[in-house]
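Q: Sequence in, structure out?
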Amino acid sequence: MYSILIVLALGALAVGIVVWATRRKPNRNSNAPREADTAWNDPVTPAAAPTPAPDESRHP
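A: Exactly. Output:
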């Protein structure tokens, strides 16, 4: 009889520990300003192509 009570108590303790460890904690800084512009989804446009250097081999 006592062994069943011990097993049930340990099971309840284990469930309590799991619930306590995995509970969702509220965000402490919920009113803090969030960074609005991170530019992660801005389109990537290539830079202007550099002007080619004059080819020295053409001019003798």
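The chain is about 35% helix and 0% strand.
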